[in-house]
Amino acid sequence: MFVRFSTFATHNKTILISINMKISHIEHLGIAVQSIEESLPFFTDVLGLECYATEVVEDQKVKTAFLKCGEVKLELLEPTSPESTIQKWLDKGNKGVHHVAFCIEDGVANALAEVSEKGVRLIDQAPRKGAEGLNIAFLHPKSTAGILTELCEHPE
Ligand code: CMX
User: Fold this and answer.
1) Are 61 and 84 in contact (CB under 8 A)?
2) Distance, CA of 149 to CA of 28 (rounded, Å)
3) Which pTM was predicted?
């Protein structure tokens, strides 16, 4: 584990903040759609991205379609039930980018402990299995600048 320090000046004071977790890249953007079938042609036929996999994630009540855009993936999320968090979000008039997922190099569990220590509200108290077999955990948008944030890592 390594420690970095973030510094910023405020009210003429410099504050040192230690950061142990390391984000390597944005793993994917989650995009909520009512219908993958209707939404996919924009990404494939207009943007020219390749849809390389679809998967139903039962416990999240979603069907997903994955597209590759360089190192970053787009994850289209279609609700499979009225109780799906995605359906509830769409029903409130939202659509488009639903969450941002960051790839953590040195463990989601460690990162959860670190961000929790800094006062961030956790949705998942411990990593769980997500789409594509990744270990994932969500942070609540009320403490992440309004962006539903996912931390994820590839299993060993
Ligand atoms: N982005 C930003 N804010 C969001 C949000 C999102 N995607 N979803 C909800 N919110 C906000 C709402 O706007 C609301 O704010 P206000 O109180 O100001 O209106 C607040 O969060 C609470 O929202 P809610 O509608 O009452 O919904 P819930 O509390 O029932 O659930 C959340 C919200 C984020 C806890 C829930 O959606 C969750 O647990 N998400 C993580 C899991 C998930 O999203 N799974 C689907 C993807 C699965 C996958 O990728 O495989």
Assistant:
1) yes
2) 11
3) 0.93
Distance between CA atoms of 39 and 133, rounded to whole angstroms?
Answer: 24
What pLDDT is recorded for position 2?
Answer: 57
Residue 64 CA, distance from chain mean position: 13
Residues with CB under 6 A from ligand 1: 30, 57, 60, 62, 75, 77, 85-86, 88-89, 98-99, 123, 130-131, 138, 140-141, 146, 148
E-strand ranges in 33-108 read 50-57, 62-69, 72-79, 96-104
Rounded CA-CA distance 132/130 in Å is 6
The residue among 148, 63, 58 whose CA lies nearest residue 101 is 148
pLDDT at residue 10, rounded to an integer: 67
- pLDDT given for residue 156 in this prediction: 77
Residues 6+ apart with CB under 8 A from 109: 126, 127
Separation of CA 153 and ligand 1 centre (Å): 21
**120 with 144: CB under 8 angstroms?**
yes
Positions in the chain whose pLDDT score sits under 50: none
Provide the pLDDT for residue 120. 98
